[in-house]
Amino acid sequence: MGIIVQKFGGTSVADAQKIHNAANAVIREKEKGNDVVVVVSAMGHTTDYLIKLAKEVTPSPNSREMDMLLSTGEQVSIALLSMAIQSHGYKAISMNGQQVGIITENIHSKARIVDIKTEKLKKYLNEGNIIVVAGFQGVTPEGEITTLGRGGSDTSAVAIAAALKAERCDIYTDVEGVYATDPRIVPNIQKSDIISYEEMLELARVGANVLHPRSVETAKQFNVPLRVRSSFKLDNLGTLIIGVDNMEIYKPVAGVAADSSQIRILLSELPDIPGTAAKLFGALAKNNISVDMIIQSLASNNTNSIAFTVNEEDYPSAIEIINEVKKEFNAGEILTDKDISKVSIVGAGMVDRPGIAADMFRALADNNINIKMISTSEIKISCLVEKENANKAIKALCKEFNLESQEKAVVKGDLPNV
Amino acid sequence: MGIIVQKFGGTSVADAQKIHNAANAVIREKEKGNDVVVVVSAMGHTTDYLIKLAKEVTPSPNSREMDMLLSTGEQVSIALLSMAIQSHGYKAISMNGQQVGIITENIHSKARIVDIKTEKLKKYLNEGNIIVVAGFQGVTPEGEITTLGRGGSDTSAVAIAAALKAERCDIYTDVEGVYATDPRIVPNIQKSDIISYEEMLELARVGANVLHPRSVETAKQFNVPLRVRSSFKLDNLGTLIIGVDNMEIYKPVAGVAADSSQIRILLSELPDIPGTAAKLFGALAKNNISVDMIIQSLASNNTNSIAFTVNEEDYPSAIEIINEVKKEFNAGEILTDKDISKVSIVGAGMVDRPGIAADMFRALADNNINIKMISTSEIKISCLVEKENANKAIKALCKEFNLESQEKAVVKGDLPNV
Fold it and tell me: Which end of chain A is least crowded, N or C, by CB within 10 Å?
């Protein structure tokens, strides 16, 4: 038997009852003979509460002090979960990010993990302990407390699983697994039994929020099998996420997602000289602003228009930068369109099957949905549509690609034994 | 200008408004040209809330995990106070016990400080920072989080002041200083402008709860001048606490206090052979049970009765131990009396002035208060009385020793310049 890393999100440890529920899931895995490391988020709305406290003190709290503040949320959870496990007669010990040695960059509020020390973890496991680790937090080599940003606890769990060469990392959450699309939009949607990292990553990038892309990327990089499963239905195996090379068969379209948090920006009449696009996107990149769906078109007066989308969070700083570029090149107007949604289909099987894109465009056209922009990657096709059409588009695409049926995807042979 | 250590209790940082109030007190000291280190307790009822959470999970939480849990309370306060100070335009940085290097014994829930690292503190002070340190917590050399038990934040503050050779340690609280007795019992009681460590220690031991004895002992040991003062009336200098040798004049009786948390235990018919008392009190001491006011009396049948008082917290374990001793020596009955109160007068001036004890006993007698037991130390006389007479005794003694008048104690010359 090997090491299993489990991760419980905030809703799974929101009160004493749920903490005992999580303890049961932990003990269940321990009883199978595994060594268990558990990674926990802050209880329920703790993080929101702490942010509210900070905002009461000052509208613009210092990011170092925010990390100091927010990291307490997970420390509360690990102590309580350890107590719960102990109360059932098992050895447990909690460790915060500093105690484990989850070493990160010296950047506050969204640090990346650079190293995880395993000495203490291995020592405590060898002594028969279940280890409960605070997710979302780390420490710089100088001992400064950092947090990992969105999806941080998932990333902590996967990184610890990778460092310990764990057999599997189970992400316990309040849904039963990964669905081909949001069940609130398409109620009879299929749950995937198995999906590849690559598909999961694309789904996460285009709005499916079961797992943060960073955690999936880390899992892919270190080949850690992930399982997304329900903390309330422990017999349900949820969705297994593994490398595409390990999958025996996959559907052409594994999922459909919409991202309504994008804003389209168009900058017109840029002079058609080399380096303008590089200047614009270089400046955006330097400010950590991700840009998607770039389209450049040459106008009749020998100037270029560049259209692209940015996340609404990044919009204010993006506009500042674009204004500077506009001045520098004496460009035309900046037009923005907030009334858009990016609808995407994702599937590792697309590569082999021509015509998937055509099927998508036809399905949208049949439903009177106008496509404003298109972008494609090896396993994803995205169309920008009007925001009000997003749900209609998702329904049409789920129907088009047979994601609605009650039958599950056919998988040759058994699931890999992980 | 030197280093000033300030300590704010939970009521002084209970909400955003009070945190800004504390920030003002900090900035005021910084503006005088001092280097400032601030020690903070958990906000308001945070600790009670965390204890409640733990009790919901398990009735008997593990003490290591309790320390992990409770230490988050102070970490929240230091982050928020740092943000508040920064919002007024000053450089501030928070540090938890681990980051400072407040090294303690490896005992959970009531560890003692064995060392305080000053390298980082000095570095941050040199960089012009106001440092905000989490009180009540420390770390073992192995990196385990510990807490210091009752009065822990006061002790943290004094120990840091000692380690940094600070000019003074100011304990900000919700009272205006040290009073000769509890103002709720004697409303027109005097506030002391100055009092000695020794008197403060005795007052704290017998029930005055402004400062925990441990913090006063540490201040005495390292000769750190303490000031107890109000966080809400910053112009009020409160009470200065210094060594008795540095005081020019002192009153025969500096304070009166009652401790109603004592229980009297009497063990009768112990054989009059050597070692019985040693056995009894040795066993109690081994279990960390403090014993006070011991009286041993020889009965006619050549057996001894031993009466003593213990704190009500220690009572259950004390009774277990006494039962074992009773069996071993085939002793008589165990009688307990919970209806008692220990009333004490404290004053460094007692040494020089005979007759203080007689004055005390007469004042009590004049008020029909029966004395059940008496114990004395160099600067303290304690009488055990019936609980219902405690307040009457305090009033009588304050009157007897002129602690009620509106005039302040006469101090020759100015207060020491600290």
Answer: N
